[in-house]
Amino acid sequence: MNVRAQVSMVFHLDKCIGCHTCSLACKNLWTDRPGTEYMWWNNVETKPGTGYPTLYEDQEQYHGGWILENGKLRLKLGSRPTELVNISFNPRLPTLDDYYEPFTYRYKDLIDAPPGEDQPVARPISMITGEEMEIEAGPNWDDDLSGSPVYASNDPNLRKVMNEEERRQFFEMQQLVYFYLPRICNHCLNPSCVAACPTGAIYKRGEDGIVLVSQEKCQGWRMCVSGCPYKKVYFNWNSGKAEKCILCYPRLETGQAPACMHSCVGKIRYLGVLLYDADRIEEAASRPDSELVDAQREIILDPFEPDVVRQAMADGVDEKVIEAARQSPTYRYVKLWRLALPLHPEWRTLPMLFYVPPLLPVTATLTQQGRQELAADFFSSLESARLPIRYMASLFTAGDEKPVIAVYRKLLAGRIFKRAQTVGDIRMDEALKALDEAQLTPGEVEDIYHLTSLASFEEMFVIPPMLREVAIEMGVDPHEFQEERGAGFVRIPERGL
Amino acid sequence: MDAFWFIAFPYLALVLAIGVGIYRYLRSRYTYSSLSSQLLENRKLFWGSVPWHYGITLILLAHLFAGLFPGAAAFILGGRVRLLVLELTGMALALFALFGLIVLMIRRLPTNSLVRRATSYMDGIVLGFLLVQVVTGVSIAIFERWGSLWYLRTAVPWFWSLVKLHPDMSTVATLPGFVKVHFIIGFAIILLFPFTRLVHLVMFPIHYLWRPYQVVIWNRRRGRTAVGSTELTR
Lengths: 497, 234
What we know:
- The structure holds 2 protein chains of 2 kinds.
- Chain A is α+β, with helices and mostly antiparallel strands.
- Chain A has a domain at 3-101 and 136-261: Alpha-Beta Plaits, CATH 3.30.70.
- Chain A is 34% helix and 13% strand.
- Chain A has helices at 21-30, 59-62, 80-85, 108-112, 156-161, 164-170, 192-196, 223-227, 249-252, 259-262, 281-285, 292-299, 306-314, 319-327, 329-336, 360-363, 378-383, 389-396, 401-422, 428-437, 442-454, 457-460, 478-485; strands at 3-12, 43-47, 66-69, 72-75, 103-105, 124-126, 179-183, 202-205, 211-213, 233-236, 241-244, 269-277, 300-301, 341-342, 353-356.
- In chain A, helix 19 (401-422) packs antiparallel against helix 20 (428-437).
- Chain A is globular.
- Residues 362-367 and 370-376 of chain A have low confidence and may be disordered.
- By secondary structure, chain B is mainly α.
- Helix content of chain B is 65%, strand content 3%.
- Chain B contains 10 helices and 2 strands, in the order H-H-H-H-H-H-H-H-H-H-E-E.
- Chain B has helices at 2-27, 43-68, 70-76, 80-107, 113-117, 121-143, 147-153, 155-163, 177-192, 199-202, and strands at 216-218, 231-233.
- Chains A and B meet through helix 3 and strand 8 of A and helix 2, helix 5 and strand 1 of B.
- Strand 8 of chain A pairs parallel with strand 1 (216-218) of chain B, so a sheet runs across the interface.
């Protein structure tokens, strides 16, 4: 056992209202520079949909993530020599057409236009070239299912689980259903961007598991962009370097929640430490598809267990970090309650960002007489869900429906129990029966209810002390250290010739 | 004049290339990048970058091999058929590279406004020098047969005399003008390395073949408080 700490996240999709505030908070803070205009380190997608960049989930096109070959993990991008051979032209690189050409409007024309017969118009211009352009796409072009025949119906997950006729029926107006999927870098335990980087410029921080690109070392070979199956590493065309979500580590190091989380209107986001066994990463990532979710849960360790704590201390995890792991909301959602699932575990990167799947498509079928269906109908309602369970399984469990059903049973049983408690139109004994079937106790439901609905800022974001101060030897004057080693760039980072 | 171009200039080019290269690496490593524009334009890049890189890499390796092992090269080129086959292969690769280079130049024209945004004036200079170099190289192969053979008796001794710090330009001083231009531009391109995006060639990440897949860096050493050094655990 080799215990390490990881700052992890949980997104509660039931609460996401698709307002894109997270995306804008991130944009304004990090990607408003030349070369980053098209980047959205945080984006919110409508599901079903093709996402950003378009069809990023289709690994037959992009070759991201890992594959299992004779029980061995291999980059889907190809072997190391293949990568070096392809270095002058990366055949799997998404281009601007797959993202979108960033645009703004020539607003000044509205003021400066000479007097005339017509209203002045602010024409769209490219943010890269400054020339006039026709807007053809945007990062959330399929928001709220707009352009469904082009976007939603081509969702790789949907195509996997529905035939053409089923998809036609699905897009009947009466049947339509969608939810939002906010995405940032997953700060994976087995990151394929790190493995794909020829230079070795991408690394995982030992203390907190944040995956970063060293801007000094990066030489712009672009293999990380293809290697990441989530397409969360971007190429800055201006600096010639790869960039990605840094989980707002400068904010975390000063005890603040990342900008996307801090600004979340729906309060859907949770952040906390998970302890994990670094020795078992490869083994967990090499399990068959159907075991991947469980394997990932297994290597996440219980911070209350004395053995784990002892080993964690021996491996240099600070006591305060272990304490933060005990308070961690993500530990509860992921490991204790088993409500939160990783996105596309079949890509075998062991993503450390988890999603509580949305209940929305299930409850909508439950109101035959304006009443919540009871425990007896519990499972049939899941099967007739408008967005089929197998779609959710394709997203969150590598196609295995069992863990998804288990999550939904818990979420539904919790609702039935709380309804019996507060509204009283469901008999408590039936509610308890539902809890029993979902393997929940009333105490757990209260905890889930509290953390889901009533949690305070401090409960949602349990930021561990990042302990940067102890990275400097005691006795060294921090001011002197800063002058010697510098903080960040000593010179202005400018594009090379 | 020849003494400058064939004795002083090669040394100047090499010293500047290495000196400035190291200075740039230490002072602003950030500027070391391939400066790829593939994100902005993909199709022309395929027809330009692939022929160019494969063609020129193999040709450069052939130059390098013959320069380092003239004896072996002479042996290989000894047979009539082998000479013809190798010369033809070289010619095909050179034309392949030339085709790629021309596509790359077209790609950088002002009409491609997206790529143009990621183009510096030094890119134009590099492309110009490379074009002259490839065109003179192809002309030499056509008009001064058989270049691969006399290269061993003219340029190679001159290179080695430079390496041994006993510069002797007698073997190259009498060559035709465009052959001399090929030599001079060759060293000029070496000189350009640290001032242009050509530095990416020096940084070719061959160590990817053996580096471990995962990289973990600690802000401090595990288990104890140490000087703020970063340690690469593997």
